[in-house]
Amino acid sequence: MSGSARAVAHSNIALAKYWGKADADKNLPAVPSLSMTLDSMSTTTSVGFGHGLEADRIVINGRPATGPEASRIVQMLDRVRQAADLRTRAWVETANDFPTASGLASSASGFAALALAAACAAGLKWEPARLSDLARRSSASAARSIFGGFVTLGAATGGVDFLAAEPIGGSDDWDVSLCVAVTTTAEKPVGSTAGMRLTASTSPYYGSWLGLAPQLYAQAKDAVERRDLEALGEAAEKSSLAMHACAIAGVPSVLYWNPTTVALIETVRDLRARGTLAFATIDAGPHVKVISKSSDAPLVVETVGRVPGVIRTLVARPGPAASVQLLRSGS
Ligand code: DP6
Q1: What pLDDT, in 10s, does the model give residues 55-92?
Q2: How far is the CA of 14 from the centre of ligand 1 (A)?
Q3: Ligand 1, closest atom to CA 243?
């Protein structure tokens, strides 16, 4: 077998957050989540299975991957090899078109692109839901990057094994923008997998989060279906603040914010007080993402860009589903 394929997947930002697992081994989320796929931040990944390779060879942004970063990728390749009944090793080349030093998470677009490229190179003709489930096993947020526009991922209920994200139909041309305010180039000290594990095992508020998150998810979903930016923004801010409040109360505290993060939350509140519909959301890092109408995005970018400590700003609109191209079919 010597097939190869190249896939492109876009990053996504959750507006109703996934934080906590129902089953860590199967990587099943404990709460449902809703995200927007971003048009301007993507990962391109090529995968080839080839005779003669003694081990999987992985290159990320031009440098060979090693350690845990490489083993997470090999794990997905192993799942694909098992499904396709393949024994050959693979080469993998992956690169992001957004600055890696920006500290923005690339695991969502990265594992979605890898799932698509590896499955296609191995000759598996899987529909998007199955690819989303494959991506989810490596990183749950990656399940959502298989689809474009606004996307949901359910929570795991009672012993399920298969769990895929689903797009919210007709949401990809909604004229909203997401402005990313980058506040550091440093690597985050605690990744999301470890951060949620610590939160679940030590935060006194984890139980409350599990109760609240599905309600905020339902509000966010309803708002996207009605194209109600204000209702979506309110649910998104609540979801992000509740997730962080819960994590911050962990022991030791899972605190992702820096002083600029807090200044940005205040700036977004000020923007709202002055009549601009803008809402903040924060992931497992100190950057702040602001959702607004596209026509307000220039004002949002200019305002958050002036906050001391903001290194750069990026703007994204709802982006497309992941796509794949077969480079060479297997023999
Ligand atoms: C805060 O998908 O990175 O971005 O499944 O352990 O790989 P793993 O976690 P990951 O967590 C993302 C957490 C988040 C919220 C979200 O994207 O829903």
Answers
A1: 999 999 999 999 999 999 999 999 999 999 999 999 99
A2: 9
A3: 1
pLDDT, residue 103, reads 56
Closest atom of ligand 1 to CA, residue 283: 1
Nearest CA to ligand 1 atom 14: 283
Write out pLDDT tens, residues 13-51: 999 999 999 999 999 999 999 999 999 999 999 999 987
pLDDT at res. 157 = 81
Closest C-alpha residue for ligand 1 atom 3: 192
Question: What number does the ligand 1 atom closest to the CA of 12 have?
Answer: 17
The Å distance, Cα 282 to ligand 1 centre, comes to 12
Residue 20 CA from chain centroid, whole number: 14
The ligand 1 atom at the shortest distance from the C-alpha of residue 18 is 18
Q: Find the 329 Cα to ligand 1 centroid distance in Å.
A: 33
Average pLDDT over residues 200-204: 98
Contact between residue 317 and residue 110 where contact means Cβ atoms under 8 Å apart: no
Cα angle value 63/67/68 (rounded, 5°): 110
* Tokens coding 17: 């957050």
User: Residue 252 has which token pair?
Assistant: 């030791």
* pTM metric for this prediction: 0.97
Distance 303 CA to ligand 1 centre (A): 28
What are the tens digits of pLDDT across the range 52-64?
Answer: 899 999 999 999 9
